[in-house]
Write a structure and sequence with these properties.
Helix content: 55-70%
Strand content: 5-15%
Number of helices: 5
CATH topology of the largest domain: Arc Repressor Mutant, subunit A
Number of domains: 2
Length: 130
């Protein structure tokens, strides 16, 4: 089951963060059709947010055709998103996780790592390599 996390400093609306995390999990194969999302009550208890925020995120996902609410049972994934090679994704995720460990060992904090990533990302895609 997905474990939602919030970045209160991101400036991104909470419900959009939840939607994006479901998109990411679907794209990476971490959520599959048939799996149940946490209940709104579970998300509220874990993140201390308004239940309407969770419900709004779930409604958006339902409008996209990715999940379906089943009264009395929960909200379930009904469709995945197109993905690239799962083996390549897993390898790259492991590589990136290792790099993050090296960054932490070098004394870099989350803001430093994010700045490096954003800069490299913008530079890479600005060169037209997509």
């Amino acid at each position: 089951m997905i474990e939602f996390q919030l970045d209160t400093a991101s400036g991104v609306a909470t419900y959009l963060q939840l939607v994006q995390q479901v998109h990411d999990a679907l794209r990476l194969g971490l959520l599959e059709p048939g799996e149940r999302l946490p209940t709104a009550q579970q998300v509220v208890a874990r993140l201390a947010i308004n239940p309407n925020t969770v419900l709004k995120a779930y409604r958006d996902l339902e409008r996209e055709g990715l999940v379906r609410a089943r009264p009395g049972q929960g909200t379930f994934v009904v469709r995945s998103l197109p993905a690239t090679d799962r083996v390549a994704q897993a390898r790259l995720l492991a590589d990136l996780t290792g790099w993050l460990g090296s960054a932490r060992s070098a004394g870099l904090g989350p803001d430093d790592v994010e700045a490096i990533f954003r800069t490299a990302f913008r530079s890479f895609f600005a060169e037209g390599v997509a």
